[in-house]
Design goal:
It is a single chain. The chain is α+β, with helices and mostly antiparallel strands. It folds into 2 domains: 32 residues, no CATH class; 86 residues, no CATH class. It contains 2 helices and 5 strands, in the order H-H-E-E-E-E-E. Strands 1, 2, 3, 4 and 5 form a 5-stranded antiparallel β-sheet that branches. A hairpin with a 6-residue loop joins strand 2 and strand 3. The longest helix has 12 residues. The chain is globular and about 55 Å long. The structure holds zinc ion.
Length: 119
């Protein structure tokens, strides 16, 4: 969470940007910080559409259950961790992302599957 002086600068900057635009939205999200949630409300922590309650396990295909969701909106984000190099066919995030984790209930599998989207 930004300190008060930084928060004030961010609010002034956001107030000069077009309402609803991506730059303003990113600043306002940063003021709120990263969010983590569990349960049905956490399925709405998304930069795009809601996350599903279950997804097929990437290993065995059984229905995996939602565990938690993390929605970025802080001063640091995954986009800064690695380079996004389209020409070498390497994808990496270019904006805030949201990650929803699901665990396979099969005791012989217990694989975690992740769905994601970004701002
Ligand atoms: Zn599985």
């Amino acid at each position: 969470m930004p300190d008060q002086a930084r928060r004030s600068r961010m609010i002034r900057k956001a107030s000069r940007l077009p309402p609803g635009g991506p730059a303003r939205r990113k600043i306002l999200a940063a003021l709120k910080g990263n969010q983590i949630g569990y349960g049905p409300e956490a399925l709405k922590l998304s930069w795009q559409g809601d996350f599903p309650e279950t997804v097929p396990c990437v290993k065995c295909g059984k229905d995996s259950r939602h565990v938690l969701t993390v929605m970025e909106g802080g001063e640091e984000d995954a986009a800064d961790l690695h380079h996004n190099d389209w020409k070498d066919g390497e994808f990496w995030f270019h904006d805030y992302a949201a990650f929803s984790l699901y665990m396979c209930p099969d005791i012989d599998c217990t694989t975690v599957t992740t769905k994601w989207n970004q701002g």
